[in-house]
Amino acid sequence: LPRNTTTMTLVKQQWQVPEQVTLADGTDMVPFYAGQELQWKLESAFNAN
C-alpha cells in the first residue's frame, strides 16, 4: 500500500457529539457516541499532496 499522506490535527477540547448528522445527500446518520461528551476534537484534516 502507498504511504498515507493525510494529516489530521486533534485538540484537547471537550465537546458533545450530535445526536444526528445530515449528510450531503440528505441522509440522516446517527454517529458513534451520539449525545456523549468527548475530550478530543478534530481541528483540521488535509491531504499533504
Strand content: over 45%
Q: For the largest sheet, list the strands in their spatial order.
A: 1-4
- Tally of DSSP β-strands: 4
Shape: flat
Please indicate the count of domains: 1
Helix content: under 10%
Give the SSE order as H and E letters: EEEE
Number of helices: 0
Determine Rg (CA atoms, Å). 14 Å
User: Average pLDDT across residues?
Assistant: 93
Q: What is the straight-line distance between the termini?
A: 16 Å
Largest β sheet strand count, sense and barrel closure:
2 strands, antiparallel
Give unreliable regions as ranges: none
Task: Output the structural class.
Answer: mainly beta
Description:
This protein has no helices and 4 strands. It is an all-beta fold and 49 residues long. The protein has one domain (6-47). It has a two-stranded antiparallel ribbon with strand order 1-4. Strands 2-3 form a two-stranded antiparallel ribbon. A hairpin with a 5-residue loop joins strand 2 and strand 3. The two termini are 16 Å apart. Keywords: Hydrolase. This is Dihydroorotase.
